[in-house]
Amino acid sequence: MTTENPLQIKNLISRAHQQGVRHDEQLPFLLKPNKPNGYGVLLVHGFTASPREMEPLAQILSAQGFTTMGVRLPGHGTSPEDLAIRHQEEWQQAVEEGYLLLQQHTKRIFGVGLSTGALLLVALAARQPLTGLILLSPFLRVKHRLAPAAGLLRFAKKYQSRPIAPELATTYYDRRPLHGVHQLNRLCRQVRRLASQVTAPALLVNGTGDQTVRIDSSLELFHLLPSRHKVFHLYGPEVGHALTAADNPRRPELYTLIQQFLRAWAPPQQGSNAPLET
Cα 244 to the chain's mean position, in Å? Predict the structure, then answer.
């Protein structure tokens, strides 16, 4: 923990610059609506991504009156080399900092996380009260057959390369450090232990076209959560892992589903009739 006050967005942005973030869309953000509805939404991006992954959704929710906070996980928005020296405890700390910052604006906070961001929110919900959880492409195991051995393989091979479209180069890394995959494995084991402590209403969403994580492990997480109010929503093979990405053909439906869940647990103030947006 640094000596600066971590509960100011300007300080989180300054820290991000110090750690090597160069593009504005990779910075953490706080959106305060003109007419707050009394609720906040903490948004957490996925592994090797950046806050840009969650910003379009944040804009929609802000227009609905939600105060939205987009977290930047350490090692993201900088370089694969930076991510290769980070640990999942640092990611958890960043998520808790975002929660505490958002708590200055409202005590009623929802969490929306994609992939690794979803797992980090489950871990947060075991420590802090959340009004509800929206877990997009959550998992407890990844698909790659060698992923469980990442803890050993990282000493022989540092990175796994993958193609990234030029327009996505500032949002995602084209190399995944195996050290980071090892941290994901550690996080999964911790979430498996903590899930039984999480009682907040939960919406879990996956697509059967996901080539990154095992859908059966998402369902396993669903069953581990003891909440009396939980829903598992599964899209078909046309939907892959990055549910918030523009190339998801069901993204408008997803955004409507998210807003419906939020409205179910955050009823609008009297006289508010803001329409759903897609």
Answer: 10
Half-sphere exposure of 37 (CA within 13 A, CB side): 25
Question: Which residue range(s) make up the domain with 141?
Answer: 54-107+123-209+219-262
**Closest to 68 measured CA to CA, from 24, 26, 112:** 112
Q: What is the CATH number of the domain that holds 145?
A: 3.40.50.1820
pTM over 0.85: yes
The stretch 191-201 carries a mean pLDDT of: 97
Cα 166 to chain center, whole Å? Answer: 23
* Strand bridging mode 175-177 / 159-161: antiparallel
5 pLDDT more than 50: no
Residue with tokens 């540092």: 158
Task: Name the nearest CA neighbour of 249 among 275, 278, 219.
Answer: 278
Residues contacting 107, CB < 8 A, separation 6+ = none
CA distance 3 to 35: 34
